[in-house]
Amino acid sequence: MSIKEKVRNIIKEATLKTIQEKNLSKDDLPEIIVEIPKIDSHGNLSSNIAFLLANMASEDILKTAENIVKNIEREDIVEKVEIAGKGFINIFIAKDCLYKVLCQIEEESERYGCSNFGEEKKVLIEFVSANPTGPLHVGHGRGAVIGDTLANVFSAAGYYVEKEYYINNVGKQAELLGTCVEAEYKNLIGIPMDYPEDGYKGDYIKDLAEKLVKMGGKRYQDWGLDFFVRFTVREILDDIKNVLLSFQVRFNRMFSENTLYDSGKVDECIDILKEKGYTYEKDGALWLKTTAFNDDKDRVLIRENNVHTYFAGDVAYHKDKLSREYSKIINILGADHHGYTPRMECACEIIGYQPGLLEYLLYQLVNLMRDGIQVSMSTRTGEYITLQKVIEEVGSDAARFFFVMRKSDVPLDFDLELAKKKSDENPVYYVQYAHARICSILRQAKEKNIENISASEANLDLLSFPEELNLLFKLSILPDEIISITKNLETHRLANYLVELASMFHSYYAKYRVISEDKELTMARLCMCKAVLFAMRSIFKIIAIQAPDKM
RNA sequence: GCGCCUGUAGCUCAGUAGGAUAGAGCAGCGGUUUCCUAAACCGCGUGCCGGAGGUUCGAAUCCUCUCAGGCGCACCA
Hints:
alpha/beta; Isoleucyl-tRNA Synthetase, Domain 1; 4-stranded antiparallel sheet; 20 helices; flat; RNA-binding
């Protein structure tokens, strides 16, 4: 249990005791919030519980605070308790307790920050799921990094995570794509065929047609549209997978829409919807009555021409996912799809699953910039910067960091030049540099033959400067941070934490010397450095960027 | 017109489940290296937290209204 969690429990116990003394019901216990005050003099942790309880018992706040403090069991970890402001309860953590964090980190090394909070519960995260109709663009990159990082966070917090990509390979778009390649191919081998007017532009269509010519010359001329669709989708998907791989993103499962049709699951699902009484026919089409829940209009499942809509397949897909007994299902989508989510949630309710199980995480769009000027992304003009080009240009590390460092609610300006800069303007290097510096210190220590002793043997009492204690405390809350991200899905917080930790370390580094004449002090500080190193590596692993030894 | 997201320092953004004196990076100015990497550190900020009401011991944060920007409102996927 982390320090923060322990303090929360201590305050909870004290509050419960106070409630009993006041003859209040236990149900009146307000939620216990422990937060980290902005100002050092307010202690390591602080609680506003007195305000909440006083309100409930209509009592004086200060008096309530005093009562609670009186009931606080003085455990080892609490050095001092103060009532400050108008009733905040401020907790100062005992140094010994902070030192123990170093021992813990040493033990867990690069796994520090992980916990068994999730109790191996199953979580499904579906992301990217880009239609295989063309190469990935930067927007997909953002979804990929958010999804992959989130998966790693859940994993670190003790969940069993599966990552899934839904391949939409059925329907008009897939057909159109196949037709484009067919036309391009036939023209190449001298058989005239009109290119579809609304067809896909872009060099990749031509590349694929050329590949076919190279593979079999004129052999495929009569193989039919179905062949071209399957070939094209497979090729594009391979390309997508490779790009994602170069971005350290791997999926546990690629789920193809057509398997739902082939196995009859779509029809099965529609039968169930019918049985539940939420379908009706109108204008020759079959509709789902999503307005019965929270949608602004009903949705078509089967068109007049007897062709299923995308929605029909997707409902069947969600039914399948819901039946797999996950404790949480997260769908990550670009914000341009937000209009779609209510109908899906309605459909899930109709099928009979409780609304909370399925959660959507929407991320705002990405503006690709170069030196502060927006790069136009027109498919029509062919001026189209793919995700692959971005990764090639700025590298996977910078790209991942940039995509993850902003809250998903806000549009992201991705500046290619900034991401490439090896300077202080670029936060990626700032955090990696901190890591490299520590490695350098450790190398020096080794060269000087300084004994490499464990934290339990070192005289950690020598770490007594405020900067050192603050650093230790910062390290102590990493597991809490990771757990909290599983609740709010705000992966950018990890990047913030990393920058803050790096900043604290850089600052410390400039002010104090780790390796000095004082052997004991040196060893204690080396222990602290190693702990920072492990914490950083642990986070690097989660956001999947390199931890360079040298820069 | 309706719905979702956003509006915080010159710029890009944090601001943890309402909390104490609103923060960081960049840009700008000035400084720091006989010593573990100067890709670093230190100092310098008079912000109608878009605006107006409201809830509360307490609001950038919650509610209502309003203004501005982005996105979405298909028998496309």
